[in-house]
Specification:
The protein has one domain. The chain is mostly helical and 59 residues long. The chain contains three helices and no strands.
């Protein structure tokens, strides 16, 4: 699930080869990476919550 989101995230952002070749990390790109990490934490938290809710309902 996380891999699919990572792929979608990568295709949505225009991270060109030029960006990596120039080794320039602009504030925008740093912000994008921070957002990506925050998104992954959010996904993990929601996943954990859904497991907890499922366990409660199952009981």
């Amino acid at each position: 699930m996380v891999i699919r989101i990572l792929k979608n995230w990568g295709s949505n952002k225009n991270l060109s080869n030029k960006f990596f070749n120039d080794r320039i990390v602009s504030r925008r790109h740093c912000f994008d990476y921070i957002c990506l990490i925050a998104d992954l934490f959010l996904i993990a938290a929601l996943d954990q919550c859904s497991n907890e809710i499922y366990n409660i309902i199952k009981d």
